[in-house]
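Intended use. Records like the one below are meant for learning the mapping from a protein sequence to its folded structure. Do not use them to infer anything beyond what is encoded.
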Amino acid sequence: MSLDYGKIDLFNFLTKKELDRLSKDVKIKEYKKGETVFSPGDKPEKMFVIYEGFIKIFMLISDGREQILYIYGKGEFVGGHNMLKNEDYIYHGLATSDVKIIELDKYDFSVLINNKIFLRRLIDQSYKRIRKSEKLIDRLIVINADMKVAKLLIDLIGIYGKIKANGTILLDTNITRQELASYAGISRETMSRKLSYLEDMGIIDLEDKGKILIKNMKELRKFTL
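Structure written out for the chain above:
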């Protein structure tokens, strides 16, 4: 498929001259849901920019469980920092939906990194990533499972949230209950139990295909206090 740079904030400022400097090999690679994008030990030879879909970044902790660190969507990148520091990947990247990814090699990255606008947008995403990390740490250190689940649902609004006409918010997450549990730092059984509890309270609705409808944000926020 043809690459429309205008669809991605990291690139939509580029002039025709700058686009012409990029190699003709820049392309979109497609991954099916569940396919690996990169693994620990992979060399920093590419920067991945999501064109469509979602990927999760995770690590395996000492007891073998998966801990999700980030979920990235359209316009977000992975690998820019690895290229800058020439460091191998240390985490896993896996498609949580069918995904299309722009893959930039070292030459194209070197062209872009000298553009001040690109660099500022890279820094802006990096700053937002730090905030995501802080929210993850906050979720993991709290003991109360209700609070963990509520904080996660609120954080997922920024990734998957779609506000409906009646003011409710639909989370079309494309991830499993096990992945939700991993992201919250609890077991799958606890996640299922807490979601059912929130549904019984009239705060959310559990819909088909893993969708979650947040019906009462005010009451949901009370669990985070």
